[in-house]
Amino acid sequence: MRIWKYAMASTILGSALVLGACGGGNATEPGEEPSGEAGQATGSVTGDGSSTVAPILEALVEEYAGVEPDVQVTVGTSGTGGGFEKFVQGETDFSNASRPIKEEEIASLEEAGIDYTEFLLAYDGLTVVVSQENDWVEDLSVEDLKKLWIEDGTTKKWSDINPEWPDEEVVFYSPGTDSGTYDYFNEVILEEEDLVSSATLSEDDNTLVQGVQGDKNAIGFFGYAYYVANKDTLKAVTIGGVEPNNETIESGEYAPLSRPLFTYAKNESMTDNEAAYNFMQYTIENAGEMADAVGYVAAPEEEYEKDMEELEALKK
To answer: What start and end residues bound the annotated signal peptide (predicted)?
Structure first.
C-alpha cells in the first residue's frame, strides 16, 4: 500500500488527507513505485459527472497513473446531470452520478443507441453544515430543513426555527441544478418544491464550502467527504439527532440523507477500448478502499464482486 497526500477536491484552504491507496495490487513502502505488471495498457479514457463522486475518481486516477502510465484518464465535474448530457452525446466513456439515472436520461441514451452498465462505487451521507462560528444550531429535523429550504415568499430567519436563535437572515448555499446532490435533496427533503430563491448555487462544492466557512449565518449541504476535508472550519448539523459518520451512513440510520454513488460505463467503450475497460476494472477493484480514504463509505464487498462480474460479462 502506497502512502500519498491527496488535496481533497482541490480545497483552497489546503486541507489534505493522507490516504492509503492500493497501487498495482501489491503492498509497497512509502516512496516506492507500485509493484506488479505495469504499462500493459495504452490509450485514453474520458469521464465526467458528479462533483460528489469526483474525490474518489480523482484519487483513483492519480493511483492508476502509477500502474498504467501510458493511459490518459480525464475526469470532468460538470455535475450529475451535466455528465449525463455529455454521456448521451457520446463524449465520455463513463459518467459519475450521485443519484440513480433518471427515466428521461435512460430514454435519451436509448434514442442515441448507447447501452450502459451501472456500477455502485460507495455510499455518501449528504451533510448539512454551518460555520463553526455558529454556536446555536446543533440539530435540525427534516421538517426544520423543509421550513428553511423551501421557497415560500418569506425572508428566512434563524428565529423562525427556534425563537431563542438569532433574529438574523439565513444565508443559503446549495449545489447547482445540474448536481445529483441538488436532485437528491430536492426529492427527499423538499419533495419537489422550489428551493429557496435566495440561495447561492454552484456546481463546485468548494465554492459552497468557502461560502459557509465565511459566514456564521450560512447553511449549506454537500457530500460527506467535503465536510470531512473541512471539519476544522465547518460544523455538521445532526439530522433528527443522528450524526453523519461512517457507521450511520453505512447502516442507513442517517436517514433520509444516506445515498449510493455510481458510475455508468458505456458498454461499447468497455468492449472496444482496452484502456477504458482496464481503468474501469481498476476502479471497481479499488473503489471501496478509495471511498474510505477520501471520506465516503465503502460498499459491501459482494457489491464490488457483482460489479466485476457485470464488467467481465461485457467482454464475453
So the answer is: 1-21
C-alpha 307, offset from chain centre: 19
At a CB cut-off of 8 Å and minimum separation 6, what does 288 contact? 122, 298, 299, 301, 304
Domain 2-123+260-313, CATH: 3.40.190.10
Question: In this structure, are strands 218-222 and 127-131 parallel, antiparallel, or unpaired?
Answer: antiparallel
Summarised one tens digit per residue, pLDDT across range 159-212 is 999 999 999 999 999 999 989 999 999 999 999 899 999 999 998 999 999 999
Helix H or strand E encompassing 251: helix 246-251
Q: How much is the pTM?
A: 0.81
pLDDT tens-place string over residues 39-50: 688 999 999 999
**Which residues have C-beta within 8 Å of that of residue 113, sequence separation ≥ 6?**
none
* 126 closest CA partner among 174, 60, 83, 82: 174
Nearest CA-CA partner of 150 in 197, 201, 202: 197
